[in-house]
């Protein structure tokens, strides 16, 4: 519209010019061709002008578009953006900074950048202007920006130098990501994680306590043996004491050597004297066994993690097996294939717990079979201890194979199993740096293998 109206104005102007020229023809006669040439030149100049005008308006529109685009991008940024000159004075900021600081861009332009930051971050910010040749002057550096209430808000700040078209440094651009939100999210994730770990530890403890409940009968059995042994010995010692007292009394009363000899033979004093030492030793051994069982029980029920120490893996396996088997309704025949002692360095509590769980499962699946049998082997080779528990039950059901290590997976009746035994055992094996594997034996029954990397005692270091 503008262009066409201008064109009309110009035509009128030319016509009036032509009229003017005609009126002066008599004074200075100019040829028709000359006039035409002048008019053509004027038309060309005018067309040029129009072209420039159109071009200018197109560039203006493009510039406006670009400015709107940049403004839109800056406004949409959630990160904070600050543009500074070489001296570190603010030239431009985005809406995110305005929101965070509660100040308008107009208020901030011309201020020294450091003013926006908390005291502890100012030295770093003030040094930026002098570090513009480093690439980048700072990267992911945490600084504290003052928010609208004057509180420090952590920002992960990146800074890069800004150049003009000749490549000269004009200033710098800072981009900061508020990390408060991120940090809060991270902290709540951390809390959730530690609560989960706590819940898992609780699960391990509950599982252990449930196992303890089942083991009580077996442990009582185990204790019964040495205790009855100690009792028997003590009764014998009591009788022996009575005989010795009787004999000593006869000596005190001044009995003749013949009488004393008869008494000595009747009271079997020589046998008593010979028996005392083995009886005392036997009693001590029984008491020690009781104390060991109590210690094993305490270790088993303890919720504290013990330190690695030398222990006899063969003894741990035997104790675990006997606790479970003694408590079982149907007692399987147990066939051991392992050395008398197998000293290794590690944590015996979790190993004991795993074996109790494996043997308990084996005993459970064989509860109704005719000749229950348990094959237990333990060996150490090349720093790996392998304990294998094989039963002669029905084997692991096909559809259960993939799920037996899942928490709460059980095929037992309600109240008979929680489905935590293998899950907890698997976790314990991993914690020990080992592995628990399950398979079915080609002949029959399930085979569980616990592999642990252990140092053989005496070979460590
Ligand atoms: N020796 C085995 N033979 C066949 N199946 C087994 C054997 N051991 C475990 N399973 C299967 O794996 C399931 C999970 O065993 P897990 O020990 O985790 O739980 P559970 O014995 O059912 O319950 P609990 O928490 O009391 O141990 C069992 O219910 C059973 O189906
Ligand atoms: Mg179980």
Automatic annotation (TrEMBL):
The keyword Transferase applies. Residues 139-191 form the PAC domain. It holds the Pfam family PAS_4. Residues 66-110 form the PAS domain. GO terms for molecular function: phosphorelay sensor kinase activity. It comes from the Bacteria. Residues 218-456 form the Histidine kinase domain. Keywords: Kinase, Phosphoprotein, Transferase. Its EC number is 2.7.13.3. SUPFAM superfamilies: ATPase domain of HSP90 chaperone/DNA topoisomerase II/histidine kinase (SSF55874), Homodimeric domain of signal transducing histidine kinase (SSF47384), PYP-like sensor domain (PAS domain) (SSF55785). InterPro entries: HATPase_C_sf (IPR036890), HATPase_dom (IPR003594), His_kinase_dom (IPR005467), HisK_dim/P_dom (IPR003661), HisK_dim/P_sf (IPR036097), PAS (IPR000014), PAS-assoc_C (IPR000700), PAS-like_dom_sf (IPR035965). It catalyses: ATP + protein L-histidine = ADP + protein N-phospho-L-histidine. It is an enzyme of class 2 (transferase). This is histidine kinase.
